[in-house]
Automatic annotation (TrEMBL), chain A:
Annotated protein name in UniProt: Uncharacterized protein
Taxon lineage: Bacteria, Bacillati, Bacillota, Bacilli, Bacillales
Organism encoding this protein: Fontibacillus phaseoli
Automatic annotation (TrEMBL), chain B:
Required co-factors: Mg(2+)
Keywords, in A-Z order: Magnesium, Metal-binding, Transferase
InterPro entries: Isoprenoid_synthase_dom_sf (IPR008949), Polyprenyl_synt (IPR000092), Polyprenyl_synt_CS (IPR033749)
Entry keyword annotation includes Membrane: no
GO molecular function, one term: prenyltransferase activity
Superkingdom of origin organism: Bacteria
SUPFAM superfamilies xrefs: Terpenoid synthases (SSF48576)
Pfam families: polyprenyl_synt (PF00348)
Similarity comment: family membership: Belongs to the FPP/GGPP synthase family.
Keyword Ribosomal protein part of the UniProt annotation: no
Organism: Fontibacillus phaseoli
Family matches, as PROSITE patterns: POLYPRENYL_SYNTHASE_1, POLYPRENYL_SYNTHASE_2
GO-annotated biological processes: isoprenoid biosynthetic process
Full protein name: Heptaprenyl diphosphate synthase
Amino acid sequence: MNYELIQDACHLLQSELSPETGIRVTISDQDVRPFIFLLEQYDMPAIRRLRLLSIYIAIKLALQRHGDCESSDSGEVLTRKVLDGDYLYSFYLQLCLGWQEIDLLIHLAPVIKQIQIKRASGKSEDERLLKGWELFLQLENNPSRQSRAI
Amino acid sequence: MKIKLDDALGISLRSVDREIENMVKYDKDVPRSSELVKSILDLVRSGGKRVRPLMVIVGSRFGPSPDERKTWRLAAAAEFIHAASLIHDDIIDDSPVRRGQKALHIKLGVNGALHVGNYMSARVIELISAYSADRERYVYDLSSLATTQLCLGEYQQLSHLFDYEVTLEGYLEKSKNKTAQLMATCLKIGAQSAGADESVADLLYSFGEKLGIAFQIRDDILDFTQSAEKLGKPAGSDLRKGQVTLPVLYALRNERLAPSIRAITADTPPAITDEVIAAIQQSGALKESENLSARYLDEAQDIISRLSRYPAHRDLQALLNYFGGRDN
């Protein structure tokens, strides 16, 4: 497990976030392990690997923040969870745009939407996120598959 | 009788609503009979003035080559972003009612409502991705509609509850982030969708920003002046919740009044807060707030003059009259 990569991605994400949000970027190894294994299967520059992991963590954190909101949460706790999730969802978008990961953004848009549809109906299919990334990296590394997929 | 904004602009609100409804009706990933579709359609059909979509369409009238399809999609997207933020605002504020109906989190629970709002934001990203052949345009539209600034406005509000050291600049910055930025963006992306000059699009942005700030100030004044019945909450609710709005900032300049305002905390008995709110209502703070709002509207009026060569400058006038309650 590449702990240094996780740490660097968390630092990168933290440095990009507005301090006004008060969000502390922490994520468990377990939450990113399958994604790191996925990333390791593909050749890419170190900086891109770092950025992709940062984007992934931003989305995971957004899902987590909005995943455990209860009406029983006290006012400020609930407010922070809602706001943090909202901010992180818009932030992953900004990261993709800023780092020229437009194809990734276009690919993930329906995936993240489908996760929200499931969640709105009380189900969880968050695993779609990892599958969505897997397909994106496959298509990116094998354009002939992309033309077939289209 | 006061003319309705959509009539003044010659835009069919019914068509705008249809475009907004189509965003969810034509989503193949959502079953037509689902609670999600029903919730969104109920929300759309519960009314609303559609100010933001109207602003997108007005913006498009400043360009030489309006692409109606694209403009109307952007208009619907702007309303989706706004509506999603209202759903989440109601959760944060624990507001039980929205447009005369039960708020969505009361109907679906916090989790359900939260994800309906998220769906709406995600759907906007998906749709803009789908229609944008022009990559540069796509990046611009999406980053404009991203809600990071809106969230920052909320964070700024949250971190300054009962903070009487807030400056006028801080208040204006929060108001820009929370309210004015999306309005300004609507006019600008509308103009750009029709190929308007960058300088014109920038002027429209500036116009929208000034209008948005004036709107926020007026909203903050109304919190003190409207009856509890009309507001659906007690007058002065913002201060009761710790929000230090413009009338409070001006009232704090009154040396006689300032100590009693500064003494208000989350634990202050309502009767004492009532007295302070009454004192603010009777002070000159509301008039001063109105004056600042009027100054922003005057600046917006100047921008209309600079755009007078475009026939659509009359639409800006209609927007300004609407926001400012001005007659001409």
